[in-house]
Amino acid sequence: MGLSNTIQNAAKTAFKAIGDIPLACTYTSKGTPVYNTTTGAYTSTDTDYNGLSILFEDYSAREITEAGGAILSTDQRASIPNVNLTPTPKITDYITDSNSQKWIVEEALIDPAIALWILQCRRSA
Fold first, then answer.
1. DSSP summary character for residue 89
2. What is the pLDDT of residues 77-100, one digit of tens each?
3. Is the pTM of the predicted complex or chain greater than 0.90?
4. Among 28, 54, 87, 115, which residue carries the largest CB count within 10 Å?
């Protein structure tokens, strides 16, 4: 097993070790829209990934200021072990937390060790 796999598994183990701090969430990957020529509408098939442990954190005032408006004070940073999330996150996806709050993915980054997805999430209206 390579160093990358070791780090990825360590991130997964760390999420188990911190107990009930991460929330049990459903990650919804939005499907590619397909145009229906009969109805004139776009449709897509979404895929849900249930039971993911996701750690939500506030952004610091410094991060919000330095982002120049790209991060709102109500946005949350969501961390997910890479080995737990099958799809590559994209901006149209969303997370539904254990309080039934829906969070839209605004940005998706992966850490240098490819162990954690770090998502900027914005509360849905």
1. P
2. 999 998 889 999 999 899 999 889
3. no
4. 54
